[in-house]
Specification:
The chain has about 425 residues and is α/β, with parallel strands linked by helices. The protein has 22 helices and nine strands. It is globular, with a radius of gyration of 23 Å. Bound molecules: adenosine-5'-diphosphate (ADP) and magnesium ion. Magnesium ion binds next to helix 7.
């Protein structure tokens, strides 16, 4: 695989499937014309070019830097025009000075009961680097705005002229291994220990990676010792992240740990309105309300939906009304749920947990089978119209009381076991996002 493709593969992990399929998937990397500091991609039309230019070019450039170690300029060109007239219609995209997404600002972040604690914590840290809560640890489910908030603080620091490093664990690890390979550890340490602010996203991925934990620990000590602000995000509370050295785990809690919960309906509506404003999409109130009720908690879905609406209306020269919105979302959202059947749920759960679908439906009592079966039953109950007797029959259980007993058990687990809840949430998202 060429580096241009690899970069898109990494990007794929970080965005919604809808966004990926609609935009990124169509990009073709020009291996021949691209150079060490110039990456050329081709896109099929102007909409894709614009969308990528606005949303992903910085990110793509950043991933190139992580992968290759050098700064690149990313160019997105119209496929046909380049074929015919060489580079005439090339849209040049300059890499910004910061790797932070500039639209991830505090003013673009909608505050509600679900996120106000995290918001207040990040805001106060952004106004008083290194002095109030250090480190600040933000945790919560997928797509609830952790990266956005963290980068909002990053943008404030950046605008004050501070040296901000924003990185994911994966990128930190890549950088680290490359530095070992190239014998440039000194530069690596200099970079991470001399910055003013370090933002590390999705720290849960440090789990069970010993080598990098050691290096990371020393980075942390150096920065903290110098009073430099550190912010982490994760999908769970530090106590719940397994496979961490104890000294690291305890340090994660030294400052302040703040959680983000799924947004309430009003907050969802506010977020959609904000996204419309940013993306220059005009939607009436009833459409906004409709989208807010159709999407669950994962805010990331909203952007996918807006871009889809925007693209369709532009391509087909149609104004967006409620009927049109419902049609566009049909294959994706609630109607999609009606197509979700138990086979599909069991298949997805089995794949995720590395077991066979038939094992979930078997009478096997081993711990991981029981775990997978519980999750499957719960999701089937939530996402399909099947009755308890139907579930009992499908999962080979005695009768509906066995199912109702299982569901009670699962409800307790969801309340008591954060990991279990997150797993269910993650799998539910996966299942409902599958086209
Ligand atoms: P996470 O890092 O928690 O998975 P992100 O920060 O990537 O989530 O958020 C996903 C998307 O949702 C981003 O486009 C972000 O701007 C948006 N978003 C999430 N919460 C809010 C909010 N409260 N206000 C505005 N946008 C939000
Ligand atoms: Mg994130």
């Amino acid at each position: 695989m060429n580096i241009g493709k690899e970069v898109l593969e990494i990007l794929k992990e970080e965005i919604t499937e809808v966004e990926y399929k609609r935009y990124i998937q169509h990009l073709i990397y020009d291996v021949k014309k691209s150079t060490n500091d110039l990456a050329i991609y081709y896109a099929p039309n102007a909409i894709v070019i614009n969308w990528i230019k606005n949303k992903y070019s910085d990110k793509i450039a950043h991933l190139f830097e992580i992968k290759s170690g050098t700064k690149v300029t990313v160019q997105i060109a119209l496929k046909n025009s380049v074929d015919k007239r060489k580079t005439k219609k090339v849209v040049e995209v300059k890499q910004g000075s910061s790797l932070l997404n500039p639209s991830h600002s505090f003013s673009n972040f909608m505050v509600g009961g679900s996120n106000q604690f995290a918001y207040a914590a990040v805001k106060s840290v952004s106004e008083n680097a290194g002095n109030v809560y250090n480190p600040l640890f933000i945790y919560g489910g997928v797509g609830l705005g952790k990266t956005h908030l963290m980068q909002a603080a990053g943008n404030v620091y950046h605008n004050e002229g501070k040296v901000v490093i924003y990185t994911t664990v994966e990128q930190f690890l890549n950088d680290f291994t490359r530095s070992i390979r190239n014998n440039t550890m000194e530069r690596f340490r200099e970079k991470y220990r001399k910055c003013d602010v370090l933002l590390i996203d999705d720290i849960q991925f440090l789990s069970n990676k010993e080598g990098i934990q050691e290096e990371f620990f020393h980075t942390f000590e150096a920065l903290k010792g110098d009073g430099k602000q550190i912010i982490f995000t994760a999908d769970k509370h530090p106590k719940k992240i397994g496979g961490l050295e104890e000294r690291l785990q305890s340090r994660f809690e030294w400052g302040l740990v703040a959680d983000i919960q799924p947004p309430e309906l009003e907050t969802k509506i506010a977020i959609i309105e904000k996204k419309c404003e940013i993306n220059k999409v005009k939607l009436s109130k009833d459409i906004v309300n409709y989208i807010a009720t159709v999407i669950d908690s994962n805010v990331r879905e909203i952007e996918g939906i807006l871009s889809k609406l925007h693209a369709y209306s532009q391509l087909m020269h149609i104004d967006i009304d409620l009927e049109f919105t419902k049609n566009v979302l049909k294959d994706q959202m609630r109607e999609n749920r009606e197509n979700i059947d138990m086979d599909m749920i069991v298949k997805t759960v089995a794949k995720d947990l590395n077991i066979k679908p038939s094992e979930i439906k078997s009478k096997g009592r081993s711990k991981n089978l029981v775990y997978a079966r519980r999750i499957s039953i719960y999701i089937c109950r939530e996402l399909t119209q099947n009755t308890m007797p139907q579930l009992a029959q499908y999962f080979g259980m005695k009768d509906h009381t066995a199912i109702s007993h299982t569901i009670k058990k699962i409800n307790t687990l969801i309340e008591e076991d954060e990991d279990f809840r997150l797993k269910i949430e993650e799998l539910t998202n996966k299942i409902t996002a599958t086209p």
